[in-house]
Amino acid sequence: MKIVNILMVAIVALLSVAAGLAKVMQTQQELEFLQGFGLSASFIVAFGLVQILGGVLLVPKKTRLPGAILAASALVVSTVLIFIGGNLMFGLVSMLPIALAGVIIYQSARNTNSK
Q: CB neighbours of 96 closer than 8 A, spacing ≥ 6?
């Protein structure tokens, strides 16, 4: 079970950092997509930094809970925008990392409360 937990954390952390880097680096596809919702380039960079921070905080056990909450929050915002943009299939796939982050939040909160 420990390997499954490590894999979940690694997947969500890597996805969060990768998505954040795409925003911070202002890749054309990210900018076009997010600016289509009226977001400014500076807001997109700030959003990317939040995603990166969430991914980084996921790694150490001590900061896993706030990292998972940050990562999940950013993933939810992105997924909602994907659905609004009309990409149903990608939106459904994007819900998987949210579910994984939810499991990490649950486990981290349970471990924090049991100490």
A: none
